[in-house]
Amino acid sequence: MNIRRPASSVFAQVWARGAGRVGLVLVLLIVAMALFAPWIAPYAPNKINVANRFADPSGAFFMGTDHLGRDLFSRVLFGAQIAIVVAFAVISISLISGTLLGIAAAYAPARVERFFLIVFDVIASFPSLVLALAMVAILGPSLANVIAIVAITFIPHFGRVARAQVLALRNAPFLEASRAIGVSGPRLVFVHIIPNISGPLIVLASMDVPVVITIEAGLSFLGVGVRPPLASWGTLLYDGYSYLTQSFWPVLFAGLVLSLATLGFTLFGEALRDAIDPKLRRIP
Amino acid sequence: MTAALVEVRDLGVAFATERGDVHALRHVSLDLARGAIVGLVGESGSGKSTLALALPMLLPANARVTGGEIRFDGVSFAAMGERGFKELRGRRIAMVFQDPMTSLNPVISIASHLGDVIARRHPDLGRRERKRRAIAMLDRVGIPDAERRLGGFAHEFSGGMRQRIMIAMALLAEPDLLIADEPTTALDVTIERQILVLLRDLRREFAGTILFISHSLGTVAELCDEVIVLYAGTVAETGASAALFARAGHPYMQALIRCETEVPGTDRRLRSIPGDVPDLIDPPGGCAFAPRCPVAVAACRSAVPLLRPLAGGTHAACHVAR
Amino acid sequence: MRHAALRYFTSRLITTALVILGAMILLFALTLLVRGDPASVLLGPQATPEVIADFQRRMGLDRPVYERLGLFLWNMVQGDLGRDVVSGRPVLDRVIEVLPYTLTLTFVSIGFAVLLGIPLGCYAATHPGSRGDQFLAIASVSVVAIPNFVIAIYLLLIFSIWLNWLPVLGTGPSGDWGDAALRLILPSLSLALSWIGYIARLMRSSLLEVLSEPYIRTSRAYGLSETKIVYKYALRNASIPTLAILGLGVGRLLGGAIFAEIIFARPGIGKLIYDAIGTRNYPVVQGSVLAVVVLFVLVNLAVDMAYGWIDPRIRAQSARAAAPA
User: Looking at CA atoms only, how far is residue C141 from chain B in angstroms?
Assistant: First the structure.
């Protein structure tokens, strides 16, 4: 069973390891890019300047320009906003609804529980990206659709873990005691259960962040993610790929920043796992 | 052939832990005579298993030898090196471990376990001959229907049967020294009896030395020719089994015998020697048993007692015993 | 025991069937979410009114939802995945046509992942703390974290544009096996890299765990060579988690193959889905997504069955697990 510890000690432990430190720094960097993009960006991200197409990196354009002469550095900064917004929204939605569904499944009659599990299995049996692709294809691409759809594909993940945690917890003496003194319903769930199963769920959530960022970028790369004028890192990569023979800078920089972001969140998530619950594993 | 098979002189072994070095064995000297069954007794934590693992140099990574030497058949370990230890293992030394549940590989067949031991001892034997010997040995240690069960896996056997398989492995290695590290501790009482009977029967066929480790004095008294008593990583008393159980000199051994024999009908585990085993990170200066000893004198707390002969025919490390 | 094993097998079979049924229902439900007339959306903008009318009659769009679902499922079960609205050909034919390309890509990638990942993991586990181990630790977490489409584009950039070493795009002229194999290297590597890293890490940790087990001490006590201990006595135990993950790996790779297929301009089921989305060819999207899911589920079933073969304990365990239900 996991032991609840103050957040400060967990962060100290994350910081203590080299990989955790690199991860935390990268995560803070990416979040800062997203937060301060409007103030840092030297140009408007969608300002077209055809005269300056495929410019190499220079003092004026740190990362060069794309096929329409737009400043890549500014677009990469605003891309961080999309990545962070999508990741935060998807993880919050699937974490909250997955946890509640998981708890409900654990307390539901056996028949309902089995139904829940089969639904989780069905959703989980779709490779996330393929499911998202099928749904976006039919519902049409938009930021909101991407968030909703990716969130659905992640719900079973949290639901199963929450259920398993509750089952492991259900006969814990302190819960018996709470029930014995008449605690029930929402109070039991929110005050006694959720705080005690939150450790592994938070670890899972943080380890899912790079996966969500990858899926969002992937969908945008395939042209079924966010719509123009929004530009995700995936969009930048696809544009760069289309004009790879003219200039490789867009692909190089967009890929690099995307990779540093996923690497940073992965390292951070793993350090968090080692600090909170070393037995959890995440599959790529 | 006059010298003992194993001579241990002034051996020290320490384990590195987070709290500091644990001195599991300190200044241990003992001989294992050829062809004898030697019992090694002591409470848990007295260093029995550490000694068992030190003889074939199977100590875990965090352990290190802090001093002294071991000679096997006249050859010093210092001169052997890792290659030499490997030569000993499975050819001259074989081991039966405490827990038969975890000591056999769950995904490797019994046939492979036994076959590899035979192949190591007799590399020239063919597959069929290896199989024949394995079956004969399983039969010998009392596995019914040995031929059919040879292809089975550990989980298909009961604890007692698994320990019989471990013994079969040990015997197939035809070692000069067989170390049995509490081979019956993990088994229930009736099975324990069967395994002891098996070991006693095998005694007549097996010519080598057996080091039998146990915390049960009764078993040791029944099975062994000689006994070594360990306390807190040091040798407290050694001697011929009969002499030791008749006239133990060391107060610790006397207390152990009392625990084992007094108050019939009560649970053996409930009786114990008052006081605690000393902290081996910072062992006491004098006799390790002094803090719990009913007859300790001032010298016991300041000077480490050395093994010396007693009137009863045993050797004890005690300032008081005569 | 045999009886219990059979029961486990059938219960796994039933779950598998339920998952496939669930996937079909989900795919059907998605069409209900479509705004506007499903017929014109499903048939695409090119459809003539006659075609739409025929489609509506055939799909029974005027009937209640559950009847339409029944019809949909009935068609799917019979292997009728609908018709390509552009070419009019059965979707099943189109799927079968491109499936070999995707399967080749997926299995070659898994092959790379296993053939490179397991030895690397074994090396790291037998040399813990060495420079090689430390390098592998950094390299493997990096390749696991970096999205495979970034790896694919970088490989394309490095090997075809900068170095001009390998022919990369497409599958090459038909019949030229050597050329086809060369063209397979970069796409499959782009998919495999993260799995090489993942398997190496998994292998390292499970081998280290196994090497500290008491039964390995037994093997050491009998003087078996370190090579024999690692590769005969420990590897089999240590590869169980890896094997367990491979089923999932095939599924993820089937999904991830779409990027390799698009970036390296190869035919395949991912490319089929992608092109179908572009042309709003929904029956093709539906049919090929279902094909991917069915493949994924069947591979996982096969892997579950393979457990028992590699780990004799599971036979008993799974039998026990199946007993109560």
Answer: 27
